[in-house]
Amino acid sequence: MTDISEYVKVQACKVSERLNVLLNTDAASVVSDAMRYSAEGGGKRIRPVLTLEFSRVCDGNLSAALDFGCAVEMIHTYSLIHDDLPCMDDDDMRRGKPSCHIAFGEDNALLAGDALLTKAFSVLSGVTGLPAENIVRAVGALSDFAGIDGMVGGQVLDLQFENTSPTAEEILKMYSLKTCALLKVSAVLGCLTAENCSDDAVSAACEYGENIGLAFQIVDDILDIIGDSEKLGKPIGSDTKNDKSTLVSIYGINKAKELADELTEKAISALDRLNGDTHILKEIALMLADRTF
Amino acid sequence: MTDISEYVKVQACKVSERLNVLLNTDAASVVSDAMRYSAEGGGKRIRPVLTLEFSRVCDGNLSAALDFGCAVEMIHTYSLIHDDLPCMDDDDMRRGKPSCHIAFGEDNALLAGDALLTKAFSVLSGVTGLPAENIVRAVGALSDFAGIDGMVGGQVLDLQFENTSPTAEEILKMYSLKTCALLKVSAVLGCLTAENCSDDAVSAACEYGENIGLAFQIVDDILDIIGDSEKLGKPIGSDTKNDKSTLVSIYGINKAKELADELTEKAISALDRLNGDTHILKEIALMLADRTF
Question: Helix or strand or coil: residue B94?
Answer without folding.
Answer: strand
